[in-house]
Amino acid sequence: MRSHRYVVCGLAAMLMAGIIRPVAAQDTRFTPHHVAKLRLVTATAIAPGGGHVAYLLSVPRQLPKEKDGPAWSELHVVDTKGTSTPFVTGQVNVEAIAWTPDGTHISFLTKREGDAAKSLYVIPLRGGESRKVLSHSTDIQAYSWSPDGKQVAFLATEPLPKERKAQQEQGFSQEIYEEDVPFVRVWVAGVGDPAGPVRMLKLTGSASELHWSPAGDALAVALAPTPLVDDGLMFRQVNVVDLKSGTATSLKNVGKLGQVAWSPDGKKVAVISGRDLHDPMQGRLFVRPVDGTTWLDALPNFLGHVESIAWKDADTILYTAATGVWTTVGSVKIGVAADGKLTAREQRTLVPPGGAIVSHLVAARDGRTAAYIGHSPKHPPEIFVQGPGDETPRRLTDSNPWLRLMQFAEQEVVDYRARDGLKLEGILVRPLGEKKGQRYPLVLTVHGGPEAHISNGWVTLYHSLGQVGAARGFAVFYPNYRGSTGRGVDFSMLGQGAAAGKEFDDLVDGVDHLIKGGLVDAQKVGVTGGSYGGYATAWCSTYYSHRFAAGVMFVGISDSISKSGTTDIPEEMFLVHHRKRLWDDWDYFLKSSPIYHTEKAKTPLLILHGKVDPRVHPSQSLEMYRNLKIRGQAPVRLVFYPGEGHGNRRAASRLDYNLRLLQWMEHYLKGPGGAPPRYELDYGLEGATKTGAVGNSWRRSPARQESEATTTATIHWLGGKCPCCIGW
Fold it and tell me: Are 566 and 619 in contact (CB under 8 A)?
């Protein structure tokens, strides 16, 4: 094991400044209510000149003071010295932030009172009110400014015909499954006073991304055959659209498509893409000339996954990448060989692994300053910047100052070997106040995908106990089993065509490693996870039931046969997971189903699921529940969340989930066990301090508005009173 320890500091300065008031000792241990109040940076955009970074801050709703719902999304701007200013705050939902080409305004999408649909707004950097510059009959979903700032290309669906709208108003609201989903179209509009004409480009397919070329004569547009999720996930193609003729030319990328970026001279396009159609994750960096025919794999032997890119200049690409449980920042120069084909050279590591986990790279126009979203074991996502003279990214924002008062358990990277010798990694959060020689209960937490991974950063979320579990005396372990990303394409494909085989054996091998090391009590091991992690939980609670004393399964798979006919991603399941159809191998799908192994089930299992989940149908959880209930071999409970999909979005659903997860693990790993705990929960809301801005702020002055920017002063959660899903 490699251990990385962290020390709380800076409390005295914060107390003197009045940012945080003193609290009782028991309030400094993490609880689900602390998790429910976390503010997270979710998006960023750097000004063309590099002096300011606009960002979106996710602010959870305050129950019961506010009506339940997803977190609010606020717009803030921070300068490179670290002074953050609120721009649009309160009960608002801002998205798709960008800078106008001249750098004087920040643009964003939102739907304000009086708007019929989501519209495009701008707000001046130097102070003033936001104003609407573009609206449409349907929601604007994404947009891109022309280089001169006089036009905007945007994505929106076509409005319903009057006849169909009238029929719906009369009650004819039937859905023709997968046939009546509206296509997303590309539109171009003039902006200004007065506004220019609006025209729709006649392109084949449904659009999901667009970028105006630096020369202003073309758009890079991602088009899928249909608007269905599966087509967008597996078959999107980058097209260059000539704005004068309207002609679209496919660049013929292969595999899953990620970020798209023009070179500053408009001669090249870079994308993050899969290596081929069977690559489970877009993570390779490809570049091609706009007028060429061949893609260049710019990092052909890279054993990581590229996550974000930005051009530094016309020939150099900056990138962030996952490398194991860390991230790295690098650059690669794109040259031209004698035969006219592109070449990759001068690959450099700019920020080595081992620091903050950074992603969402954006660069200033001159390429000298870059901004990132970064997190660490001590804080959730914040804004980082790296400019001239900065050897590593420098943190600018502090959205949760109260975290400096919290007690953090030690978090470390664990290396171990699978039973077949494969080297694996994971993240371990040790029990808070751990005593040498004592064994502790373990919560094994399995990530979804499986094309995902856990980095050595912030791991405490509503669906993941992390520091909350550590504060209650649990060890919490996050294994990056075979099939995870961050270690190259070949590693991420190791589980294909072999579901629930060696990939889930890796989980048990990780538990055994911790038992052998003396930390974990072998009789007190629980397992939890969502989506594919929910599948793993179901498998560990049936096939491997003799190893697990408790399980909490979230939006998980229980029946691979019925899953193939009820998911909205059948092609992805075929191409990058099973690599075979149901009718090709019935026995494989049957025996890789946890319900096939329920005769072994002795693990108490809590099952949770969003009731409108299109990815893993709620019937997957119902099947598991019903089979276990009939057998009666172990306690089982099923909780549905009305209105929630593949992961919980509403504040109440997230808090309920976190509380139930902790309650179930405490009951069966530390408590009396036996019959399930009461299903009624004490949510503890009356005892929580209500904080944060309420109402809307669509105007701000150049002076900083501390009352809106500062998170809460008093922390009073549940104290010692015990109250007992996928991306942030």
Answer: yes
* Cβ atoms of residues 411 and 427 within 8 Å: yes
- Beta carbons of 7 and 437 less than 8 angstroms apart: no
Q: How many CB atoms lie within 10 A of CB 505?
A: 16
Residue from 655, 665, 606, 657 nearest 474 by CA: 665
R_g (Cα) of the chain, nearest Å = 26
Query: 475 and 430 in contact (C-beta within 8 Å)?
Result: yes
Rounded-to-integer distance, Cα 375 and Cα 386, Å: 15
Count the neighbouring beta carbons within 10 Å of the beta carbon of residue 436.
5
Would you state the pLDDT for residue 336?
Answer: 87
All domains of the chain in start order, with CATH: 408-681 (3.40.50.1820)
Cα(330)–Cα(350) distance, integer angstroms: 5
Identify which of 559, 543, 556 has the alpha carbon closest to the alpha carbon of residue 507: 543
How many residues in total does the chain contain? Answer: 728
CA–CA distances in Å: residue 169 to residues 173, 179, 628: 8, 20, 44
Phi, then psi, of 157 in degrees rounded to 5: -80, 160
What per-residue confidence (pLDDT) applies to 138? 96
- The SS3 assignment for 250 reads strand
Of 253, 192, 195, the C-alpha closest to 224 is 253
The amino acid at residue 31 is: T
User: Which pLDDT value is given to residue 292?
Assistant: 86
Element (H, E) at 651: helix 651-669
Q: Cα dihedral sign for 655, 657, 660, 665?
A: negative
CA gap 236, 418 in Å, rounded: 36
Spatial separation of the C-alpha atoms in residues 564 and 576, rounded to whole Å: 13
Tell me the pairing of strands 440-446 and 520-530.
parallel
Q: For residues 288 and 271, give the distance between their C-alpha atoms in angstroms, rounded to a whole number.
A: 9
Which tokens sit at 325? 């449980």
CB 369 within 8 A of CB 363: yes
Q: Which two tokens stand for residue 198?
A: 């609006």
Q: pTM of the predicted model, to two decimals?
A: 0.90
What residues contact 173, with CB distance under 8 A and at least 6 apart?
none
**Dist. CA 638–CA 676, nearest whole Å:** 11
Closest CA to 269 of 250, 247, 289: 289
Residues 6+ apart with CB under 8 A from 13: none
- Kindly report the CA angle at 593 between 476 and 624, in degrees rounded to 5? 75
Q: What is the spatial distance between Cα 459 and Cα 637, in angstroms, rounded to a whole number?
A: 26
State which H helix or E strand residue 222 sits in.
Answer: strand 218-224
d(CA 411, CA 282): 29
Yes or no: say if 537 and 556 are a contact pair by the CB < 8 Å rule: yes
pLDDT digits (tens, 9 = 90+) for 540-581: 999 999 999 999 999 999 999 999 999 999 999 999 999 999
| Beta carbons of 708 and 74 less than 8 angstroms apart | no
Residues of the chain where predicted confidence (pLDDT) is lower than 50: 1-26, 687-728
The amino acid present at 564, given as its one-letter code, is: S
Q: Is 660 within 8 Å of 629 (Cβ atoms)?
A: no
| Reduced DSSP (H G I as helix, E B as strand, rest coil) percent helix, strand, coil of the chain, to 5 | 20, 35, 45
